[in-house]
Each structure stands twice: as C-alpha cells, then as structure tokens.
Design goal:
485 residues; mainly alpha; Growth Hormone, Chain: A; 2 domains; two-stranded parallel ribbon; globular; Monocarboxylate transporter 12; MFS; MFS_dom
Length: 485
C-alpha cells in the first residue's frame, strides 16, 4: 500500500469516492428498489404484508449484521478482495432469486446471500473514503453516499419498467447482472497506509526497532508465509483489542444506542411508501415516481449537508446537524398518515429524502469524530452491525400492525417516534457532557478549590478521572503538586 503521513485529501482519493459512489448505487439503491417488488411478490405468492416484508428485512439485516465481517476481510486481507467477493455473492443471490418458487426461497437467495454480498462491499468502501480524506471528509462522504439517492432516482422507474416488460423474474435477473459492477468498484480501492495506523501495531512488529539480521529473517518469513506473524497468538489478541477498544468509549456507546432507534424508524418507510401510495389511490407509475423523487432529493441532502458541515462554523457541530436531520425525518413520518393523495405525498418525498441523505452522509463522519480515523473501519462495521436487528424486525412489525389495524397509521407513528427518540437521546447526552465539562472547569478556576485539589493527591486523582481526554489536556500538575496553569 501507498504510505502517507496523513490523509491526502485528493489525488486517487477522488477515485475512491467514485468507487464508493458506485458501491452505494449497487447496494443501498438496489435494496431500496426491492420495495417495488413488494406488491408483485405479495400477489404472486398470495401472502400477507408481514410475511412478504421479511424479504426486505432479511436483505437489510444481513447487510448490516455481516458488516463486521466486511471490515475484518478489509483489515486483514484486502479491501479489493472483499468488495469483489461481495459483488459475486450479491449477483448470485439476485440471479438465483429470479428462479424462486416460494417466499422461503427468496428469504435465502435474495435475503441472506445478496445481503451477505452487500455487507462485504458496503462498510469497507465507506471506510476507505475516511482513510483518504480529513479536511474535506464530509464533502467526500456527501458525494460518495449520494450514490444511494441517484441510484434510487434512476433505478426506481427502470425497475418498474423491467417488471412490466419482463415480469419480476426478468427484472431480478437483469439486476443480478447490474450488481456485478461491484467487482469493478473493488478494483478501484487502492490500499493506503497512514502514519497513525502504525501506532496501533505492537512493538515487536515495528521494523524500525528490529536489528538488521532480524529484519532479513522477517522479510524471508513474509515472503514464505505472509500470515505467520499476522496470525500469531500474541499479535491476534493485541490487534483484536486495539481494533475494538472504542467499544468502551462513552461517546460511542451513546451513539450506538441512538443508532438502534434510528434504524428501527427509517426502515419501514422504504418498504411501505409504495404500498401505502397504492392504497390511497396513487397509480403504479406515480408510486415509483415518489421513490425517484425521494432518491434525487437524497442526493441534494448528501452533498449540501456534506459541504455545509465541512465549513468552519459547523464543523464542530456535526453531532447536532446529525441529530437535527434524524429528528426531522421522524417528524415527516408522524405526518405521513394524513397525506392521502399524490400532490401531498410529493412534498413528503422531498422533505424526507433531503434529511435522509443528510444523516446518512453524517453517520461515518460522526463515527470518525468519536473513534478516530485509525479505528474507523472497525467502528463502521459495528455501527452498521447495530442496524441489523432493527432492520430485521421493524418491517415485519409494521406489516403486522397493518394486517391487524387495517391502516398504516400505527406503523408510521411508531417509526416517527423511534427516530425522534434517537435524536433526543443524542441531544441529551451531548448537553449532559457539556454541562459536566463546564462544572469541572468552574471547579478548577476557583482558587480555594484549586489549592485543595492539587495539595491532596487523592482528590486530584478523583477530579481528573472524571475528565475526558480533551479536558485532561486542559490541566497539568507540576512536580510540587500544584496547578501549573
């Protein structure tokens, strides 16, 4: 891999962005367009909403559940190998689905196999963008993640046309061929080695501190068997801990819980927007057009929020931009049941699509701000893994509510409140952290308190233990035990 002192913020990085852009088209946009098949599957197999919804749920769940596997292959083998392998699996799943004779067949082929293929592609491609960009990270992610919106905008009417011309079987077969483009995307993912990545390696692997004779031995070992030192017991344990030590960070824990509620709320909308539109008298082409609108506005949300949050005035407030976008999508879901004709559903698609693109762009950015660039690939694997269970259960639960109540109202209200709760949780956590930091700093600024703290080692330890890493840098103690700043 090419060595750099820091992220190059350009150069081949823009090809990485292009590759990630295509990956999001072939994974997230294709997943969204599976909802267009919903009515076809329900009519062909004669099943209810809940059982048919499991198809979309299993695709999303498998994609997110296996995201850590994609990160593992990317970290220990190659990002290129992982994405190419994922492309082959996803294509095979779609092609096999075109021969399905039951919903159970679709659960395995379209759900598990295609979802696994998408998992091997998605998180490594997203993490590679973070490796190549720092100053313009949000903009790079905005462009890369806009593939989901552009893909939805283009594929939604195309898929509807393919279904009309070749039936749902032919449409799935053609999508299987289209998804093979993931192999091309994988070829673009040139690995990069950053200076900060070397800090995570154990000392016995640092060649700079090994004698020349041992260097030659290590070189011969690496030629004969590259995996000998990598998979040694000591190295494996050390690297495993260093890759996932961010799990104990309070900031990441709060983000993880918030992601669970957000994922539960956003998934049913993409499954049931088209069936809901059809249920209120909207034509098939207009319903597919609603998905296209949502997709193209998603692009604007990706790029504009990415550009705005890279500005100096907003760069420090990315968390609040993220939770604002999630909260606005929650409000949109709450109002959806009263929108019962095409002219009213169009502005809904505009608003929901814009803020969906906004927070999707900021997920990897906010994650990088919490854990750092060196742990980004593993952290994104965990974040997307946390999407799995909500993605699995929320569409069937929403379908069960539709079957039970005969209306989509309860399903959309539950989704809306879940996303608002996700936003509120992050907001309260950030405010609590800010209040705690302000309180501790006020203690250190009080002369009497300061002298008492720094002349008693036990009290000094108890105060500094409550500070986070940034606050510890604010304080220092001289050799006499008094505050030096």
């Amino acid at each position: 891999p090419t060595r750099h002192a820091g992220p190059p913020d350009g150069g081949w990085g823009w090809m990485i962005v292009a590759g990630c852009f295509l990956v999001t088209i072939c994974t997230r946009a294709v997943t969204r367009c599976i909802s267009i098949f919903f009515v076809e599957f329900q009519a062909y197999f004669g099943q209810d909403y809940a059982r048919t919804a499991w198809i979309h749920s299993i695709v999303d769940c498998a994609t997110m559940l296996c995201a850590p596997l994609g990160s593992l292959i990317s970290n220990h083998v190659s990002c290129q190998v992982g994405i190419m392998l994922g492309g082959l699996l996803a294509s095979a799943g779609l092609i096999l689905s075109s021969f399905a004779t039951s919903l159970e067949h679709l659960y395995l082929s379209l759900g598990v196999l295609t979802g696994l293929g998408f998992a091997l592609c998605y998180s490594p491609a997203v993490a590679m963008v973070g490796k190549y960009f720092n100053k313009r990270k949000a903009l790079a992610y905005g462009i890369a993640m806009s593939g989901s919106g552009i893909g939805t905008f283009i594929l939604a009417p195309v898929v509807q046309l393919l279904i009309e011309q070749f039936s749902w079987r032919g449409a799935l077969l053609i999508l299987g061929g289209f998804v093979l483009n993931l192999c091309v995307c994988g070829a673009l993912m040139r690995p990069i080695a950053l200076k900060e990545d070397r800090k995570t390696a154990p000392e016995f692997l640092e060649h700079d501190y090994v004698p020349e004779a041992q260097k030659r031995d290590l070189k011969r070992m690496s030629i004969c068997s590259p995996l000998i030192k990598t998979w040694s017991h000591e190295c494996l344990c050390y690297c495993s801990w260093k890759e996932y030590d961010f799990l104990l960070m309070p900031g990441f824990m709060v983000l993880a819980v918030s992601v669970l509620f957000m994922a539960y709320g956003c998934s049913p909308l993409f499954v049931y927007l088209v069936p809901y539109a059809l249920s209120v008298g909207v034509s098939h082409h207009q319903a597919a057009f609603l998905m296209s609108i949502l997709g193209v506005i998603d692009i604007i949300g990706n790029i504009t929020f990415g550009w705005l949050t890279d500005r100096r005035c907003l760069k420090k407030h990315r968390h609040f931009c993220y939770l604002f976008a999630v909260g606005m999508d929650g409000l949109c879901c709450l109002f959806l049941p009263v929108l019962q004709n095409f002219p009213l559903l169009v502005p809904f698609s505009f608003t929901f699509g814009y803020f969906d693109g906004a927070y999707v762009t900021l997920i990897p950015v906010v994650t990088a701000d919490v854990v750092g660039t060196s742990s980004l690939s593993s952290a994104l694997g965990v974040v997307y893994f946390l999407h799995a269970i909500p993605y699995l259960v929320s569409p069937p639960v929403a379908g069960w509510l539709v079957d039970t109540t005969g209306s989509y109202t309860a399903s959309f209200l539950l989704s809306g409140f879940s996303m608002i709760l996700s936003s509120a949780l992050l907001c309260f956590a950030r405010l609590a952290r800010k209040i705690k930091r302000t309180h501790l700093r006020s203690l250190t600024n009080d002369t009497g308190t300061k002298q008492h703290i720094w002349t008693n080692g036990a009290i000094a330890y108890s105060v500094t233990a409550e500070l986070d890493q940034k606050d510890v840098e604010f304080l220092s103690v001289d050799t006499n035990g008094y505050n030096s700043r």
